[in-house]
Design a protein that fits this description.
Blueprint: E1 11-15, E2 19-24, E3 27-32, E4 35-38, E5 41-46, H1 50-65, E6 73-75, E7 95-99, E8 102-103, E9 106-113, H2 116-125, E10 127-128, E11 131-132, E12 142-152, H3 164-171, H4 173-196, E13 199-211, E14 214-218, E15 227-231, H5 247-254, H6 269-287
Antiparallel strand pairs: 1-2, 2-3, 3-7, 4-5, 6-7, 8-13, 9-12, 9-13, 10-11, 13-14, 13-15
């Protein structure tokens, strides 16, 4: 398991909650570790295979969606790395070489079903992202049409949900419309692909950047860290759903007496093992390949 990286030959640009990003000549080397975060805290434990699953799923999904939207992926081939970097053999299956892009200061969330923070907001105000919805929706119900809700990107602390009007004030009206339209296209395509594999894509977070005045799909693509996945054959509206994503860890932490202000408690071994199993199962369903 890889908790952190030290590539001495390269300049470390950032160490996020899960990914370490290095400068690789004119490109970026993004390494996905086995770190896990929840409620804006990085937990003490690592999750076996997590980084490999996130990286390989992103590569897979970037490749199958590139006909819809250009992305920042250049390659993920270990043999194409510079010789002095290939000595770090743990990089295999957990890195991407990507184009540099200027990230937009927002996160784009597409919601096909009412769950999570959207369900909590709806119960309080009958709104989602500030938009009023029809009364009488039940938990996990499918929307007639997917809903776009943006949020800010916080370097520290919590991201904050904002309205579409607020997004327009931040990045401009024209770019906002482009982002909304491409987010809907990407979500709709992946929701159909996954549904055919027996998975419901309940919601997902996407990020975009600008390179040479062009919009690019960046960061990660439809992973268990950025999305909510449910089993199609177990789905029942009006109930909480069995998750194939990071919600499993969130649910465990919420079941403890943790106050969500202090450092979170350690995860028991069985929670770590089950989380690893969930991530690997999601990878197997999507790619028809097993990780062991």
């Amino acid at each position: 398991m890889i908790k952190t990286t030290e590539i001495n030959e390269l300049k470390l640009l950032s160490r996020g909650k899960v990914r370490d990003i290095y400068e690789l000549e004119d490109d970026l080397l993004i390494i996905t570790t086995d770190r896990v975060s929840a409620f804006d805290f990085v937990l003490n434990q690592t999750i076996p295979f997590k980084g490999i699953v996130l990286n390989k799923l992103s590569v897979h999904n970037f490749n199958i969606t590139k006909g819809i939207m250009e992305n920042h992926l250049i390659h993920s081939d270990f043999d194409l790395l510079p010789p002095n970097i290939r000595k770090y053999d743990y990089l295999k299956d957990r890195f991407m070489v990507v184009n540099k892009a200027k990230p937009l200061p927002i996160e784009c969330i597409m919601r096909g079903y009412i769950t999570g923070s959207a369900w909590a907001e709806y119960l309080k105000t009958q709104t989602i992202g500030g938009m009023y919805l029809e009364p009488g929706l039940v938990e996990s119900e499918k929307f007639p049409e997917p809903i776009f809700t943006p949020s800010t990107k916080a370097d520290a602390g919590h991201d904050e949900n904002i309205s579409i009007d607020a997004m327009r004030n931040i990045i401009g009206r024209e770019l906002s419309e482009d982002v909304i339209n491409i987010s809907l296209k990407l979500y709709s395509f992946m929701a159909e692909v996954l549904y055919e594999s027996g998975i419901i894509l309940a919601d997902t977070k996407m990020e975009f950047g600008i390179r040479d005045e062009k919009l690019l799909f960046i960061d990660e693509a439809f992973t268990p860290d950025s999305s909510r996945f449910w089993f199609k054959d177990k789905y029942k509206k009006g109930e909480k759903q069995e998750s194939l994503d990071k919600q499993f860890i969130r649910n465990y932490l919420l079941s403890t007496e943790w106050d969500r202000k202090s450092p979170p408690p350690d995860l028991p071994d069985d929670i770590v093992e089950m989380t690893s199993k969930i991530y690997r199962e999601m990878y197997r369903i999507v790619t028809n390949e097993s990780l062991s």
